[in-house]
Recover the amino acids of this structure.
């Protein structure tokens, strides 16, 4: 996904002239960027004091909303676990891909009425995105709990014979049940120990029923054997088995319990499938809402900073540049040459100086208003 530079410069005789000059500078020799006008409507300016305060608030709001946008994108990727290539096609803004939305940006008058003050608009966005974040937390928590419980049950039904559930391996017929004196034990024997087991199990303790062992199941490493003995010999048998590297599983055949486990697994699996569709739809809708809100914040920031820098009456051209990856440094130089007359201190500014009202990190202070929009929202672990 792309990176954009949202910049503004003061209108010359007209804003169109500002645009034309920038176009010639960035596309005259080779196309070092793909450009489009970024349309910001006539917003209410308010007082200078309010603008300076708002500049600070919008910086924080920008960071907050970008964080929520990334959380939504990342959670969409987590939920779509097996089809991560489908993630991008679900991350849309107003039904179009993100690059199209940004390059054809139109202010949403219905959501963010421009008759309202800038402060009110920023508060509408903050409230809206905070609500989305809270909803995301609760939905994600429910779904993750469900997923976690299902995963735990699945793990119980897989893995080593020393730990895995035996419910789908053993049968009622494998056990002596309801006997006052006899009990069937389940023992895990390493494959290389099969012969030892067969020759020694009857003599590991007294009261082992002769020829009572059966191989019930095996995996790559071990086998699961049953053996029947008298109840009073259990402790002695366990102790001797352990000395011979045979592991007695603590297992009692309980049909009701095993049935309940299977039913729980089916229920969790069904619940997960039921929640999946609505959750993906919710993420899709709210990702779009949050992303749209984020780009409106960028528009607000450009407007506020442009008025603070270039003064009144409002007269600036906002421009969206998509730098050609190989030419980012070149583009920076071209823009500096074009706009250095706006602020002679911009290139040699001391990082320790704080410029009141211009809330810009010093590393990114240029003679023109500049904000980066990074559409690389996903941080895939794989």
């Amino acid at each position: 996904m792309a990176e954009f530079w949202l910049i503004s410069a003061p209108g010359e005789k007209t804003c169109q002239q500002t645009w034309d000059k920038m176009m010639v500078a960035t596309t005259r020799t080779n196309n070092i960027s793909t450009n489009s006008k970024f349309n910001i409507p006539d917003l209410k300016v308010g007082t200078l004091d309010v603008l300076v305060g708002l500049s600070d608030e919008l910086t924080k709001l920008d960071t907050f909303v970008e964080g929520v946008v990334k959380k939504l994108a990342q959670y969409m990727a987590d939920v779509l676990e097996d089809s991560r290539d489908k993630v991008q096609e679900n991350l849309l803004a107003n039904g179009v891909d993100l690059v199209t939305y940004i390059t054809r940006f139109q202010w949403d008058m219905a959501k963010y009425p421009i008759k309202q003050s800038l402060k009110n608009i920023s508060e509408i966005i903050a409230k809206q995105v905070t609500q989305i974040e809270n909803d995301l937390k609760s939905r994600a928590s429910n779904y993750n709990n469900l997923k976690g419980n299902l995963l735990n049950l699945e793990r119980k039904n897989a893995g080593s014979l020393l730990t895995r559930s035996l419910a789908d391996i053993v049968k009622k017929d494998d056990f002596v049940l309801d006997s006052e004196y006899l009990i069937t034990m389940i023992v895990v024997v390493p494959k290389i120990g099969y012969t030892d087991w067969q020759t020694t199990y009857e003599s590991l303790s007294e009261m082992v029923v002769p020829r009572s062992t059966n191989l019930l199941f095996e995996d790559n490493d071990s086998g699961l054997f049953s053996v029947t003995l008298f109840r009073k010999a259990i402790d002695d048998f366990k102790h001797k088995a352990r000395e011979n590297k045979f592991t007695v599983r603590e297992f009692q055949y309980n049909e009701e319990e095993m049935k309940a486990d299977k039913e729980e697994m089916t229920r969790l699996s069904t619940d997960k499938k039921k929640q999946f569709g609505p959750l993906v739809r919710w993420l899709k809708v709210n990702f779009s809402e949050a992303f749209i809100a984020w780009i409106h914040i960028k528009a607000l920031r450009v407007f506020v900073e442009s008025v603070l820098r270039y003064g009144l009456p409002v007269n600036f051209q906002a421009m969206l540049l998509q730098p050609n990856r190989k030419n980012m440094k070149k583009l920076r130089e071209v823009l500096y040459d074009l706009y250095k007359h706006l602020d002679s201190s911009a290139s040699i500014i001391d990082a320790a100086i704080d410029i009141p009202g211009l809330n810009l990190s010093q590393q990114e202070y240029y003679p023109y208003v500049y904000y980066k929009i990074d559409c690389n929202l996903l941080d895939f672990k794989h």
Summary: Strands lie at 3-10, 33-37, 182-190, 214-218, 222-230, 247-249, 316-323, 369-374.
